[in-house]
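We append the chain.
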Amino acid sequence: MEMDDFYGRLQRNFAQLGANLPLDVVKKAAHVEMRHYMKGARLANDLEAWHKLRDDCAQTLANALEAQGHKLELSKEAFLQVLSDSVVYLPHVGVRDVLTSLKQKGIRLAVLSNWDFRLPQALDEAGLLPFFDFVLPSAQVGLEKPAREFFEKGVESDRQFVRNLSASECFYVGDHYEKDVVGARNAGLRPLWLVRSERDLASGDIHEVENDDVPRLKKLEDLLKMF
């Protein structure tokens, strides 16, 4: 999934409240907020903790704007509403077709992600949840990628379908080299590196890695050539 025009939505939602902010200012503040969320996602394991994380993220966004010289006279509730209304997840182009084809081939699919406990709901809202046999957010485990134990928990969860499943029989597709490729490999899974043309700064830059023969995917559709 990807966020649908997150920075543009933030800018427009602030403008509706009378705060006309340059897009570069909004984007810089949003990156600070996103990094704060990513640090706290694995702790948001229930509704109360999730609400606290969202409150903290809204305050972080306000502080990041003020640090750039834009102190907005808005309530905490207004910042939280702007942030909540701006987060809209959509599937990447072609994802549904790829997942449909993989399921038709009899391949079990799961999601392991650094996310709060509401990951299944986010996938459901994007229309993707039915494709997966199970969903494992880091908040449920209390660990996050690239921790080896997090990937091992994923393999353990899949053994409800295949009792003697080994990690080496599992492929892990991810677009972050350290968190996905290195983490999956350390746990014995077979990593596939989805190298998109760009990646949001808050999540980690795209960079080429030498001396690593990990299979690279230019797009998710490349999976259909492998299976």
Notes: The chain is about 45% helix and 10% strand. The two ends are 22 Å apart (CA to CA). The chain has two domains: 2-89, 91-226.
